[in-house]
Structure formats: structure tokens, C-alpha cells
Design a protein that fits this description.
about 375 residues; alpha/beta; Enolase-like, domain 1; TIM Barrel; 2 domains; nine-stranded mixed beta sheet; 12 strands; about 15% strand
């Protein structure tokens, strides 16, 4: 069996799907990220395709090593997501070839389901109580929200009070049992992060996410040493080598690798590393149905996965930045992964990824699009972190 064709598709609301076909007719699907650098990602996919056409799709580790190491220069999110999308599709092919789900290749299931959490509040968080109540009605027992909008290196205390007010309202209106995670999204610089985290301690949060930008992970000890709130990070990291210093520093409680950057086997390897440091996983996945299915295959076999991000109904899906709306279920045949039941997602048990992609819809909606940078600005005109 040989790899015969690799195609990529840009579909609404902001997803890059990847289709790998073998000469025997088996088709596998993968998904990439990086919507604001989509042409760079498509170019990376095209370059990698030239190197692996005609190769055995079942030799996944060997092909991953070639794609990762073969260009001499390596790393970075553009190459990482192109490799990850192809690698997911190869696992899908392998599972379909042998007639078993991917998690059976990774040691088999340790769980039947995984607790899920959903987004509320949008990029500039608002209406969080109403949205949280909607999520609870849908069956969720945990939610996540962005902490702030734009925030300068030193900013008005009123912005901290606004964050505290939103979280306080959530806790009062939705009760003590709702899990609440707060995503700083790298928007909060060190001086403000220390103040904001201290103010949030009374609300018993699930975690504080990306309290600092990933390039400042070396400063996390200064944050973690002064709060009992669990610290989560890792969505921008691409490989076990990037997670290694984070784990060795022993200051992070939860890591959040994203399968659209790591691929399936690398995500599993990162999870095994984290288990050795008594660190839990809450895999990052504000993405489409293929990424979720791929992540769930890894969730199935890792005992230290605590929660799974779930993007149905996320604000990005509603025609984000002028793009047409789209939802995960638009691209699926059948009811797979459509519902959270009592706060949990089931592990797909079909062959490969365990889902069926509606290829005709993917082809109908394919359009090369780009998203402009947000260009958020502080009051003084300096660029603010999105």
C-alpha cells in the first residue's frame, strides 16, 4: 500500500482539513491549525507531500521522523501543524486498514468517556452567566472563559475588578459545583498576572491558563509559588522537547498540548512524560471535528487526562472575522461526538478516528481564505496581546 494523493481544504469557520488517499482507496483525514497563516500552512503541506508520496502509509513513525527531521531546520507551528495533519490522517488510514480504533494501537482504553468543558464569554468576555447557564442546560459541568480583553503591562485596577466581578457572578449564579477555568491567553503580563491571580483565589478555580506567554515560561515559578490555584499552559508548544523544560521545572499542574500541533503519537508521548511528573492533561482543542476525534483517541488511553476542551457552539464558529459560520456537525456523517452527556464525551470506537467525514460538504465549502490579525491596541497605541 502506498500514499497516492494528499489534498488540503480550507472550510468554514476557520479550519484546514487534510485528506490522504492510498492507492488501494483507503482514505484518512487530518486537521491543521494556524488560520492566520493559512497559505504558509498549505505551502508546508505541499512541501511535505512531495517527500512522502509513494511511501507506505502504515510506517507512521518513520514518516513522522522524516517530516520532522528531514529538512534540517525543524520546529515551529507552521511545520508542526502540517506534519500533525498528515500524521493524523495516516493513523486514520492505519485504523481503517486493520479495522480498529487508533487507541488500540496506543495500549487500549483506560476509560469509556472523558469529562468535557465548553467556552463561554467570547474574546472580550461578556454575558458569562447567561452563557454558563446555557452550557449547564446542555449537560456541561465545567466552563472556561477568557479573563480579560486588552491589558497593558501595568493597567487600571478597574480591569482586575471587572474580571473578579464576572467570576463572582458566575459562582453566585451557577453554584459551587460548576468547574470554572480562567484563560489569561497570554494577554496578562507578569506584574498584572500576580495581582489578578491573587484576587481570583477565593473562587476555587479549576485552573489559570497561560498566565504568561509561552516565551516567558521560565518566569512561571514566580507565579506558581504564590498561589494555590493550579497553573495550566502548553497550547502553543509543538513537541515533547518543548514540554520537557516545562515539566522539569515542576511548576505546572496541567499541560494542554494540541493535537493539531503535536499529532496523535506525539500527544500520547507528551502525556506519558507528564504522568511521570504527576502532571495532568486537559488537551487543547478549540478546533474542528477531526482534531476532536484525534484527541479523544489519545484521551482514551491516558489515565492522567482530566478534562477535554469541546468547541461546539464556540464564538469562533459564528462567522468569525467575516467568514461564513460553520460547526463541527456540518462535516460529519452520523451523530458522532454531537452531544455531551452528563458532562462527558464518549470515546469513538469505530475504525481509525472513529468518525465519518462528509466529503461532499468539505469540497463544497473549500475556499482559500485568510484571517487578518486582530490588531488589538492599548490606549497608548501599542500592540496588545490577543
Amino acid at each position: 500500500m502506498k500514499i497516492a494523493k494528499i489534498e488540503s481544504f480550507c472550510v468554514s469557520p476557520r479550519w484546514v482539513f487534510l485528506r490522504v488517499e492510498t492507492e488501494t482507496g483507503i482514505i484518512g483525514w487530518g486537521e491543521c491549525i494556524m488560520p492566520r497563516r493559512v497559505r504558509a500552512v498549505l505551502g508546508a503541506i505541499a512541501d511535505l507531500t512531495e517527500n512522502i508520496l509513494g511511501e507506505d502509509p502504515l510506517a507512521i513513525e518513520d514518516l513522522w521522523q522524516r517530516m520532522y527531521r528531514g529538512g534540517f531546520f525543524r520546529g515551529g507551528p507552521v511545520l508542526a501543524t502540517a506534519i500533525a495533519g498528515i500524521e493524523q490522517a495516516l493513523w486514520d488510514i492505519k485504523g481503517r486498514h486493520y479495522g480498529i480504533p487508533i487507541h488500540e494501537f496506543l495500549g487500549g482504553r483506560v476509560r469509556q468517556k472523558v469529562r468535557a468543558y465548553a467556552w463561554i464569554g467570547g474574546d472580550r468576555p461578556n454575558d458569562v452567566v447567561a452563557m454558563a447557564k446555557e452550557r449547564i442546560a446542555q449537560g456541561f459541568t465545567a466552563v472556561k472563559m477568557n479573563a480579560t480583553e486588552e491589558l497593558h503591562y501595568l493597567d487600571a485596577h478597574a480591569k482586575i475588578e471587572a474580571v473578579v466581578g464576572r467570576v463572582d457572578a458566575l459562582r453566585r449564579e451557577c453554584g459551587r459545583d460548576l468547574g470554572i477555568a480562567i484563560d489569561f491567553h497570554g494577554r496578562v503580563h507578569r506584574a498584572m498576572a500576580k495581582q489578578l491571580i491573587r484576587e481570583l483565589e477565593p473562587f476555587h478555580l479549576l485552573w489559570i491558563e497561560e498566565p504568561l506567554l509561552s516565551e516567558h515560561n521560565d518566569a512561571l515559578p514566580a507565579i506558581a509559588a504564590h498561589t494555590p490555584i493550579p497553573i495550566a499552559t502548553g497550547e502553543r508548544l509543538c513537541s515533547r522537547w518543548e514540554f520537557k523544560p516545562l515539566l522539569e521545572a515542576r511548576v505546572v499542574d496541567i499541560i494542554q498540548p494540541d493535537v493539531s500541533l503535536t499529532g496523535i503519537h506525539e500527544l500520547e508521548k507528551i502525556g506519558r512524560m507528564a504522568e511521570a511528573y504527576d502532571v495532568t492533561l486537559a488537551p487543547h482543542c478549540p478546533n474542528g471535528p477531526i482534531c476532536l476525534a484525534a484527541t479523544l483517541q489519545v484521551d482514551a488511553c491516558l489515565p492522567n487526562v482530566a478534562l477535554q476542551e469541546y468547541s461546539m457552539g464556540m464564538h469562533y464558529h459564528r462567522g468569525y472575522a467575516g467568514l461564513v459560520p460553520g460547526e463541527m456537525t456540518d462535516y460529519l456523517v452520523g451523530p458522532e461526538m454531537n452531544a455531551v452527556r452528563e458532562g462527558f464525551l464518549s470515546i469513538p470506537t469505530g475504525p481509525g478516528l472513529g468518525i465519518t467525514i462528509n466529503e461532499s460538504v468539505v469540497r463544497e465549502r473549500h475556499q482559500i481564505w485568510t484571517l487578518r490579525d486582530n490588531n488589538w491596541r492599548n490606549a497608548d497605541g501599542t500592540l496588545a496581546e490577543w
